[in-house]
Amino acid sequence: MARESVQGSLPTATLGETLAVINDVFVPNIAKGVIIRRPRVVGMAERMALDERAVRRVQKLNKKYGKGPLLLKVPGKSMALILDPDDANRVLDESPEPFATAEQAKRSALAHFEPDMALVSHGRKRAERRRFNEEVLQSECPVHGLSERFVPVVEQEAEALLARVRSNQGELGWDMFIDTWDRIVRRVVLGDSASDDQELTETLAKLRAAGNWGFLHPQRTRLRKRFLETLQGYIDRAEPGSLAAEAARVPTNSDTKPSNQMPQWLFAFEPAGMATFSALALLSAHADQAERARAEIARHEGDQRPDMSFLRACLLESLRLWPTTPLVLRQSTERTHWQNGEMPADTSILILAPYFHRDDRHLDDANRFDPDLWLKPEGAGEWPLIPFSGGPGICPGRHLVLLVTSAMLASLMKRHEFRLDPPDRLLASQPMPALLSNYHLRFKVSRN
Ligand code: HEM
After folding, report:
1. pLDDT tens for each residue of 398-418
2. 16 CA distance to ligand 1 centroid (A)?
3. What are the names of the required cofactors (predicted)?
4. I need a labelling partner for 158 at 20 to 30 A (CA). Which of 50, 78, 181, 246 fits?
5. For the chain, which domains are there?
């Protein structure tokens, strides 16, 4: 496509500015854990408002350099920071050519447990793996065809959790929640026979912990092989009503590598649990919105194919305020032309989601809980709100995520009241914090 562009390279940040970006954007995100979070660091990052510092840093560069993209002065590596909404949309819309999803740092992180996954593949192989993911996850369907089996799974597990909460003096913390959430995820992805396969979740956690270090950590090849063989076993078993059965059913060829696609389904469901817990906190702190949620839940009582737009909007808000993939990465496959210069091939391109999600220069209520932002017919317009990325590389699991997470919120809130402990953990009268550690949320639960 012909683009208006100027000759010469894109502007480059000074060494001092590059170091500031490394300090304010990269270090906190890497320290929090890119592939599996480190709860203590997340708690500290919340207390120190590190995510706000990252947004302010990028805003400052935007003020100085205008639209960007802006090259960073990193020795031996071409890296660009996206500063403009149109450029963010362009990069996402023009994936995977010339902006490959298989960016170098992402490849080395995900290689620890899913080296042949779609996101880190390119060309023909990526196309086939993406197609496979889209078919299994029913990427374009708001309500997955297996909803009538997934929703009861969520309801059963939520009931069991609430029974445990009652015998725990009505207290609910992250550790109890995640045990239940992991069971739901295993039942949805692998089938009921995996309900208690905690060992599989723990093996994946070990491989993800290695993934946090990228190429700096040696590959645990034997552990990965055993893990992928276990997943293949679940695909072979094809338990009816599971994603594993779908993986066994949809057509594949020698490029597909189904068992390599599956770790993403397990691993990416964890942030969905984080978003659910944070959404519960948002609703606990905003009585008026909780009323709307309850009204919707009542309307959908008994519905096994629920499309609860308000609850989904609350979850999207939770992900807008606290995106679980704050850095969306691409890698240019060729020299590209921009309004302010040329970007070399093999440049790692960084889109910092919170920079757009919390842009108080554009969004009136950037720091407020505003589910209506997702309910307007025109959405956010052209503004990149990208909790699930965007363009051809958009998360193919997004509708499934919103189905399962909204069903969980509904099952929990149907007959129970959740109050934050302490009550001032999150206050509607205050701007929403730059980060909310799901690990440090506690609720007092009572019947309503
Ligand atoms: C809150 C939960 C989730 C969020 C916020 C999320 C977000 C994202 C994002 C931002 C990407 C793009 C990453 C990139 O470009 O580097 C992505 C990709 C992907 N997600 Fe999700 N995801 C979630 C859960 C899930 C679940 C539960 C599944 C499957 C069951 C899933 C399947 C995938 C797949 C297969 C890709 C790769 C797509 C491709 O290669 O084009 N995600 N997700």
Report:
1. 999 999 999 999 999 999 999
2. 34
3. heme
4. 246
5. 15-447 (1.10.630.10)
